[in-house]
Each structure stands twice: as structure tokens, then as C-alpha cells.
Amino acid sequence: MNTPYYTRREMLRRTACGFGGMALAHLVVGGASGNTAMLPRTTPVAPRAKRIIFLFMAGGPSHVDSFDYKPELIRRSGQSIDFEGVRFGTKGKMTKRKLMAPLWSFHRYGETGSAVSDLFPCIGQHVDDLCFLHGMQTEGVAHGPATLFLHTGATNLVRPSVGSWLTYGLGTENQNLPGFVTIGPSPVNGGPRNYSSAFLPAIHQGTPIGRAGQPLGDAPIAHTTRSDRSTDWQANQLDHLQQLNQLQASRGHFDQFEATIQSYELAFRMQTAVPTLFQLDRETEQTKRMYGMHEKATAGFGRQCLLARRLAEAGVRYIQVNYADNSSNPRWDQHSKMKRHATHALATDRPVAALLADLKQRGMLEDTLVWWGGEFGRTPFSQNNDGRDHNPRGFTVWLAGGGVKPGHHHGSTDEIGHLAVDGRVHMHDLHATLLHLMGIDHKQLTFRHSGRDFRLTDVHGRVVKEIL
């Protein structure tokens, strides 16, 4: 049987009044499986990481202008060679395209001597902590399908997001906060489907904080405070709603109603936990300056990255930080005027480097997996004279901490940076590896829906053991 709602009501009141630990412990003891859906669970294999922070660079940053140094591309810049098209109307057809050298110089950093362009001088200082995957490949050549595939493993179906699968499999460490949070998500190119729980219980859906294009301080988590009503009044309202939900659940569709019940209770508890978490002014001036919060160019993404660290510290399982906007042409999508990459790199380089440094100095990088990347890369040839087209056939992402090899380069594209030719890692493989690092076998994490078992990697995916 479920914990009686009069008991839940009392526990929620105690949580809201500052007795969260005692209340929570009482709330979950003896509860049915539905009441323990978000409790942390052990895995058959010891996890290397406890949490993931995904830094999503929407639009597809150019790997040949950032982390994939190609001297041959520089030498052959201006030459026209044949490329096989991947777009609608050009797929499979050979057309001549003109090679374009990277617009930024590359320099060697760290003991590993890893080459990083002048776009990312701050991240360059951390190359000895990074694990580069240079042979990435994915599905979908347009932003919508490719972004959905990155988040859900499917290009055009409603499937659960990576964060939803993780909380479904592992629960989360802090019962007063969501297990999956997405900061500044974009409403386009998948929109809410990118953080949806789909057919998984609703408690596993990502909680959006703000919205792309809005300052984080102006739009945290919606509806977490209600100053016009007392805690007791809200507890009475919640108690009444939960009794109605329990009545409905007794008539069938228990799982759906239990998920709704849990969501209401979590929302009630969040009223106490969230305001403190968002008080970034409690951080030292040194920390805020490190994240670039005192400078206009870096303040926005700096706040997002600092909040991500605070969420990770508070026990949130999966945190996504979006560098995105409300346009159907995302920020890194330079089909012309590639020089605009400099604006986006300036906004993100220092905050990302600060996040890496902050996690490391707090001893959190060992069990926090940081993932940086976009939905695909960009072509080595020019488009519209000074831009680059989408490239799902070969691009770079990097990981840090959480059990991956530091200062390591896995895979490669060809000599001009177009096709992944060595150490190829499909997005399904990356998903399988992320789950593995969290202690989950991607083939075993399934959910029965509409008569079949679903999983994040569908019938694909392999763990990239070479980077562990």
C-alpha cells in the first residue's frame, strides 16, 4: 500500500518548515514502488560517475575551426574537390565544393600538446583533463532531427530523453529537487521533446529552468513560490488534490496517477529547496568573476554554468546547460559569416573552463561527467563563400571527468576533417557509453510500452571502452 496521504501531508509540511531530512526519511520508508521511483539505486557495476552535466552547443560548432586541427585543410584551402551530398535533393550526388581553411589559428596546450584554436583559449588550458572524440557520427542532417536524435536516440519519434532514462534507471540523490534539469532550453528543433519523459512515468521528465534567450535571473523554475498563500493552506490544497488522485488511481491507470501524485509532492518540496539554490549571490566574488558574471559577454552563460555546478552539488542526477536561442537557426549555425563563431565562443569559453576548474578544485570532477558538443559538426568546404554547412559524418565532442581518460584523443576524421575514418563513435555508441559510466548496461535499461521493450539505444550502440 502507499503511504497514507495524511502521513504524506504531515511530512510535506515538515519538509517545507525546514525538517526535510527527517520528513523525507519517514516519507519513503515502507512506501510502494511508486513512492520510491526517484530514490537512488545501486547498479550491478560500480559507476564511474554519479551525475552528468551536458553543455549543449546548439547549431553544430565547427570542429575544424575549434578542436580538430587539420594542416592539410590549411594547405589545400581554395581547392575544389568532389563531395557526396547529404541534403535533400543532393543525397548521393557528387558536387564540387571549395575547401576553406579554419579562420582561427591553432596552438598547442598542456602536457599532451593538444591543438586548440584561438576560439577556445580558456578551455585550451584544460586539455589535459579532456577526452576528445574526433570520429563522431550521427543521424539527421537538419537541426530538428539531429537534435532530437542527440537527446532521445530517435530522429522523428516521441522517445524519452537521456536524462529521463538516467533518472528512471538510477533515481536521484536529492528528493527535494528534480533528478533531471535543463537550463535555458530552446522551444524549437524538438522543443520540449528534447527533455520529455515520453512514455516513462512523468516524474522522470526534465524540469526546464528559464528559456533560451531569457536572462536566467528573470526566469528560474516557474510556479515554485506562492506568496499569497501560507504553507498550511497549500498543504491542505495538496492533500485534497492527492485524495482525488488516489480515488482516481483506485479505478485504474495507477501508474499515471501515481506519477502525477509524485510530481505534485516534489513541486511542494521544491518551494523550500529551489530559492536557496538559485541564490548565486551567495558565491564568492572570486567565483563569480571566474565564471565571467561581471562581464556582459559571459554573464549569461556564466550564470548557467555556475547554477549547473550548484545543482550537481545538490544531488541532481542530470543537468543540461543549453547555449541556444529561440531561432530555428541556432547560435552555432553559420551557413555564412563563420566569423560569428567568435561571438559564441567568447560567450561560452570562459564559463565552461570555469566549470571544469570549479568541479576539479571541489573534488567533484572525479565523479561528474562533463559532456560538451552539438548535434553535428560542419563541413570543411565553404558555403555562401564564408560559411560552412552541416556535417553529421564526422565531428568532435569532448568529455571530462567521470571515468574517461584525461588528455586523450580517440578517433579521427580524414585529412581535411570531413568523414570519420578511425575510431568512429556513433551517437548511439556515445549514449551507451554515458549509461555505462553511470553504472548502467544500455541493453538492460528497458521499458515496456505498446507491446515491446524500448531502450535509449534501440537495437544499436556499443560502449567505447577505449576511452574508459
From TrEMBL:
This is DUF1501 domain-containing protein. SUPFAM superfamilies: Alkaline phosphatase-like. PANTHER family: BLL7424 PROTEIN (PTHR43737), DUF1501 DOMAIN-CONTAINING PROTEIN (PTHR43737:SF1). It comes from the Bacteria. Pfam families: DUF1501. InterPro entries: Alkaline_phosphatase_core_sf, DUF1501. Transmembrane segments: none annotated.
